[in-house]
Design goal:
The protein is mainly alpha-helical. The chain has one domain (about 1-70). It has three helices and no strands. The chain has helices at about 1-5, 25-40, 55-70. The two termini are about 20 Å apart. It holds the Pfam family DUF3638. This is DUF3638 domain-containing protein. InterPro entries: DUF3638 (IPR022099).
């Protein structure tokens, strides 16, 4: 996933899958190391397959993703 991000333009997002139980302990490391390596801010987004989103939530997610591409 990192290689795809580094070889692409600024118009793409990378996805990293982390187990829910490991996320709190590894978030700081992920943020500093990966963010420093790709020179971009890391925006966490927790999601599950069984989540149902409303229109307002989808719009907030979209805004967050577009902010991440800037």
């Amino acid at each position: 996933m990192l290689a795809v991000h580094l070889s692409s333009s600024n118009s793409s997002l990378s996805r990293i899958i982390v187990l829910k139980s490991l996320f709190p302990t590894n978030y700081q490391s992920l943020r500093y190391k990966l963010g420093g390596l790709i020179n971009r801010r890391i925006f966490p987004f927790a999601c599950r397959r069984d989540m149902n989103f409303k229109d307002q939530q989808v719009n907030q997610i979209f805004e967050r993703f577009t902010h991440g591409l800037r």
